Amino acid sequence: MSWIREGELTIIERFCANIIKAGPMPKHVAFIMDGNRRYAQKCHVERQQGHSQGFDKLAQTLRWCLNLGIREVTVYAFSIENFKRSKEEVDGLMDLARQKFIRLLEEQENLKKHGVCIRVLGDLPLLPLDIQELIAQAVMATRSYNKCFLNVCFAYTSRHEISNAVREMAWGVEQGLLEPSDVSESLLDKCLYTSNSPDPDLLIRTSGEVRLSDFLLWQTSHSCLVFQSVLWPEYSFWNLCEAILRFQMNYNALQVRKPDI
């Protein structure tokens, strides 16, 4: 399965997309893609098949986002906490990552056509060396594209990210590169993995869970949070439209609360 599934919207989907795009649209959407394991259990298939179906759904969702004019998407692909799962499941997820990053390198023309810049955010040294190398190749291959951005959070948790940022600032003070008075929210923001991206306008979590699970805690403090009961592999264009409509319904309140930058 390609990283971006080819294909256009149906007539009715195009019609609804045009209506939705008449209102304020999120420029950056984050997804907690939850429910792959429950989907596998529901369909009586192996967990690995559920995770593979979840990646296929990501490819389809990226196409929908492109059609809706959403230029940046961030996804929670693998939490540091996931290393605590069974060795079999973790090894399976690492194998899936290998397959998908190899596939990405094979379809650079498709990514170039859409102008997709891939960024991988997290504590990458925690990953197997060969996956680190594949990630580096993928990031380098797409670094000059700027029509849209896909941020893949891999070996990531928000607390880990914030702790790293604090350590960087503390090191700067210790080395005399910073004054203690230089330490601020804006400086911490620049030390985060997401420093090249605006904060998400909309965060969507599937599967019915209503928690952030240590994902983008700093960046989503003023985002619209939408929790949907659908399992991620069953996510549809209409689920995405519902989430965007909820963002639009709360748009004015979100703008009032958004801090001046």
Structural commentary:
The chain is of the alpha/beta class and 261 residues long. It has one domain: Undecaprenyl pyrophosphate synthetase (3-Layer(aba) Sandwich). The chain has helices spanning 11-20, 36-43, 47-67, 87-106, 108-114, 129-142, 158-174, 185-191, 237-249, 251-257, and strands spanning 28-32, 72-79, 116-121, 148-156, 202-205, 224-227. It has a six-stranded parallel β-sheet, with helices on both faces. Strand 3, helix 6 (129-142) and strand 4 form a beta-alpha-beta unit. Helix 1 packs parallel to helix 9 (237-249). It is globular, with a radius of gyration of 19 Å.
**CATH topology assignment:** Undecaprenyl pyrophosphate synthetase
Count of alpha/pi helices: 10
Q: How many strand elements?
A: 6
Average residue-wise pLDDT: 93
Low-confidence stretches: none
What percent strand?
Answer: 5-15%
Distance linking N and C termini: 40 Å
Quaternary assembly: single chain
Strand order of the largest sheet: 3-4-2-1-5-6
Question: Rg, please?
Answer: 19 Å
In short:
The chain is 48% helix and 14% strand. The protein is an alpha/beta fold and 261 residues long. It has a single domain, classed as Undecaprenyl pyrophosphate synthetase, CATH 3.40.1180.10.
Characteristic key phrases:
Undecaprenyl pyrophosphate synthetase; six-stranded parallel sheet; alpha/beta; 261 residues; 48% helix
Task: Describe the protein's topology.
Blueprint: H1 11-20, E1 28-32, H2 36-43, H3 47-67, E2 72-79, H4 87-106, H5 108-114, E3 116-121, H6 129-142, E4 148-156, H7 158-174, H8 185-191, E5 202-205, E6 224-227, H9 237-249, H10 251-257
